[in-house]
């Protein structure tokens, strides 16, 4: 049987989300490390999440980025 995913589900990810599944903001992102790699990773993470559905974004922001 073919399962069709619910595109409005908080667990639904786009192809981009599957290619780079990082959503965890580790301590090094907001403790002021300031290195260019942390800043680049944070920018990429924020930019790619913009392509996900509203429920996924809400879940990540309220449950993981709190």
Lay out the secondary structure:
Layout: H1 15-19, H2 27-30, H3 36-49, H4 54-64
Key attributes of the depicted protein:
66 residues; mainly alpha; 4 helices; elongated; triacylglycerol lipase activity
Quick overview of this protein structure:
The chain has 66 residues and is mostly helical.
Name the shape in a single word.
Answer: elongated
Biggest sheet: strands, sense, closure?
A: none
Count structural domains: 1
Radius of gyration: 14 Å
Name the quaternary structure.
single chain
Q: What is the terminal separation in angstroms?
A: 38 Å
Unreliable spans: none
- Element pattern in H and E: HHHH
What percent of residues are in strands?
under 5%
Secondary structural class: mainly alpha
The number of strands is 0
Continuous helix count: 4
Mean pLDDT: 84
Helical content stands at 40-55%
Describe this entry's structure for a reader.
The mean pLDDT is 84. The termini are far apart. The longest helix is centred in the middle third of the chain and has 14 residues, at 36-49. This protein has one domain (15-64). Helix content is 52%, strand content 0%. The chain contains four helices and no strands. GO terms for molecular function: triacylglycerol lipase activity.
């Amino acid at each position: 049987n073919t399962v069709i995913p619910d595109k409005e589900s908080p667990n639904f990810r786009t192809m981009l989300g599957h290619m780079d599944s990082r959503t965890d903001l580790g301590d090094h992102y907001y403790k002021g490390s300031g290195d260019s790699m942390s800043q680049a990773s944070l920018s990429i993470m924020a930019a790619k999440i913009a392509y996900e559905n509203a429920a996924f974004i809400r879940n990540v922001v309220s449950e993981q980025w709190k």
